[in-house]
Amino acid sequence: MCERLVAVFDAYLAAERAEGRVMGLVHGDYRLDNMLFGQAGADRPLTVVDWQTVTWGPALTDAAYFLGTALPAELRRAHYDVLLRAYHEALGPDAPLTLDDVREGVRRQSFFGVSMAIVSSMLVERTERGDEMFMTMLARHCDHVLDTGALETLPEDQAAQPLVPEPSDEEAHPAGTEPLWNESWYFDFVDTGHGIGGWVRLGLIPNENRRWITALVCGPDLPTVAVLDWQGDAAGVELTLETVEPLQTYRVTVRGRGEAFDDPAELLRGGSGRPAELAMELVWSTNGAPYQYRLASRYEIPCTVSGTVTVDGRRYRLDGVPGQRDHSWGARDWWSMDWVWTALHLDDGTRVHGVDLRIPGAPPIGVGYLQPSGAPLVELQAVTARETFADNGLPVSTVLHLQPGDLELTLRVRAHAPVLLTATDGRISDFPRAWVDVSTADGRTGVGWAEWNRVRH
Fold it and tell me: Which residues form the DUF7065 domain (predicted)?
């Protein structure tokens, strides 16, 4: 049932907001945990709290969510008709809905709870109690859908069009209340001619008052140079991001004193390198279709990169080399799951992006795209990665299998630029990132970047 909903989710949302549907104010998380019941004599018998998800949408959304969440299936079935009638009567004599309208609206909105159980579980820190709660939610809402025959209301499964980010999403977003709410801007490049690659990331964690700045370069014949500022207050570290043209051109300037490592694995061990100076003045120009994720607030853009990189006085000039940038915002617990992320550029002009997301206790999740040169973007339905690591914790190679298209790609690491991620509660993730060479089973080649988030247990 969940797979069928996901397959037509965009069409379902559009149908529920079509002309003629009854719309209203939607709380968005209307459950018992967000209700305060007054005692006898109180000014209000009921106060609903936590309005941070309020929106305008199908009017029966909250009623459907409450009925699906609050009661075990047996109790809901036993009292369903009585509860619907009580809801309708509470609307008053001039209500714009009949009882049958209420019943049909709740039926159609029963899917809201299913999607909430899926998406919310991906955005918060994982706990044993949380696992139990989300699985209970999912089971109850699925039962609600099946009991009401709501599957019959779903649109026919048609090929969904890839989503495109809004130009306004290039800028910063209002922070949520989650402790690990995070907004990040990421950039990478590979210059095979000069033998240098690198990546830059700004990560804002406002509810922990942290500001991550990470800028690294590496190469097959170069040390790994890292400028790392995990609080955003290191002396001499400067980072400027500028949207030149939304979704088309982005300028990044970074400079600071960092450390050079002949053995990049030392970065995962928390070791020290020798002092080094790093500066980048680069422009990312879009070279493909911007791609918006469906289940997360995030987008990826394949690019070409031009400008200069200077390492300890040695200057490299880049001219239209392959690169990638992305922008992500929302609750992000980097220490609750593993993943393999890739952004690849093949010599025939094909751009590839894929994520193999590994949430403990959940089925595999794969997202991404194939963008053949001169052809429309193809959204991936499955991304499977098989990686090989050395004893020092650095990756050696990874084999990707992508669907649709049955494409197999082999990634071999050319140079390393890892970092160690430490949460405020002490949890640790090894976060190796690497410039990779790419070969496909059908004989194509290319380059790109890959990352492997590996939570220490």
Answer: 296-332
Residues in the chain, overall count: 457
State whether residue 177 is helix, strand or coil. coil
Q: Where do the structural domains in the chain lie, given as residue ranges? A: 2-153, 167-455
- Model pLDDT for residues 199-223, shown as the tens digit of each residue: 999 999 999 999 999 999 999 999 9
- Tens-digit pLDDT profile for residues 249-291: 999 999 999 999 999 999 999 999 999 999 999 999 999 999 9
3-state helix, strand, coil in the chain (%, to 5): 25, 45, 35
Give the three-state DSSP class for 347: coil
**Gap between the Cα atoms of 317 and 418, Å rounded:** 24
CATH topology assigned to domain 167-455 = AttH-like fold (2.40.370)
The DSSP H or E segment spanning 69 is: helix 61-70
The rounded mean pLDDT for the chain is 94
Give 252-315 as a DSSP string.
EEEEEEEEEESSGGGGTTT---EEEEEEEEEEEEE-S--EE-SSSSEEEEEEEEEEEEEETTEE
Average pLDDT over residues 102-121: 90
pLDDT in tens, 135-169: 999 999 999 999 999 999 998 876 668 999 999 99
Residue carrying structure tokens 């059908």: 442
Helix (H) / strand (E) element for 133: namely helix 128-148
